[in-house]
Amino acid sequence: MTGRLDGRAAIVTGASRGLGRAIALALAAEGAAVAVVGRTEQVWDDRLPGTIGQTVADIESAGGRAIAIRADLLDRDDIDRLVSETRDALGPITILVNNAAFTAPGRPPKPDAPAKPAKPARTPSGAAKPGWPPLLGTPLAAYRRHFEISVFAAYELIQLVCPDMVAARFGSIINITSVAARLPGDGPYADRSGGVLPGYGGSKAALEHLTWCAAFDLQSHNIAVNALSPSKAILTPGLSYYTREFDEVATAEEFARAAVKLALVDASAVTGRTIGHLQVLDGSFRAYG
After folding, report:
1. Cα(67)–Cα(56) distance, rounded to whole angstroms?
2. Closest CA to 226 of 163, 158, 159
3. 117 is a domain residue
4. CATH number at residue 148
5. Nearest 5 degrees, angle CA 35-CA 160-CA 226?
6. Name one GO molecular function term (predicted).
7. What residues pair up with 13 in beta bridges, in sequence order?
8. Is 205 inside a domain boundary?
């Protein structure tokens, strides 16, 4: 298989399902060799279908090249290992897609891990009382986990892959963000029906700031760093876990086409942007190779 990304190696995190899976498939269809990174090797919740192995199988059945790497982005040793394994198997890494995020509740069990006894419920400090807003009942550990996966792991992955990009004199880093980073916006709030996502939205806002900083530092090395956001809701398994009520939706495949275009941009023209996927797909967006 050849295409516009022929000869390039990519890492896509959170690629067992949803946007990560679609992006991995789209990059491979353009010729990139893809490291499909995630925790899910077996379906552990029927509402969250997909595994890293299935994504690789689908890429290979279409004629592409991919490897599955199980990695927990809360584990720094896993982060280091996934980069080393990608480089050893696929060559220098010139595309990084930081897609993994903490969304649906729960985490798949580790391979061969013994069953854990149920823990007694623990009341978090500042626990909410009936009728109080969810923010007051969200444990700090849950809030922190959003940042550890979406921001801290992305930061470390950028540091680990950039030597390859600097040596190659080009590269593309795509951070997947969300409109949640800008909600609920300035108050007061006449409409309070939507709720807030302080952990998810806050981590995405931090990821967008990291995008600016990385883009500023890396532009002289011809490395483009951009944040890509869905312009409309995309009913991935993670989002569908919570709700399906949207006036307009887009598809994961459409979003993935935008990610491919960002992987091809010239860093002198398009970097440090937070951009909706429909803007990228619009005919006026032509600053790419």
Report:
1. 6
2. 158
3. no
4. 3.40.50.720
5. 75
6. oxidoreductase activity, acting on the CH-OH group of donors, NAD or NADP as acceptor
7. 37
8. yes
Angle in degrees, CA 250, 214, 199, rounded to 5? 55
Q: Hey, what amino acid is at 88?
A: D
Residue type, 141: A
Dihedral through CA 21, CA 27, CA 30, CA 32, nearest 10? -120
Helices marked H in the chain: 18-29, 52-61, 76-90, 140-147, 153-168, 198-218, 237-240, 252-263, 277-281
Grouping H, G, I as helix, E, B as strand and the rest as coil, residue 125 is coil
> Which residues of the chain have a pLDDT value below 70?
1-2, 44, 46, 103-132, 236-245, 284-289
Task: Tell me what pLDDT residue 108 has.
Answer: 60
Dist. CA 20–CA 37, nearest whole Å: 9
The answer to whether 93 touches 8, Cβ cutoff 8 Å, is: no
Whether 253 is in a domain gets the answer yes
Backbone angles phi, psi at 274, to 5 degrees: -105, 115
Q: What is the pTM of this model?
A: 0.89
Please, which residues bridge with residue 171 across strands?
Answer: 223
pLDDT score recorded for residue 118: 47
Does a structural domain hold residue 2? no
Tokens of 25: 């498939």
Contact call for residues 9 and 88 (beta carbons, < 8 A):
no
Structural domain boundaries enclosing 72: 9-105+133-184+196-282
Helix (H) or strand (E) run with residue 94 in it: strand 93-98
Specify the pairing of strand 33-38 against strand 249-250: unpaired
Query: What confidence score (pLDDT) does residue 50 get?
Result: 85
* Number of domains forming the structure of the chain: 1
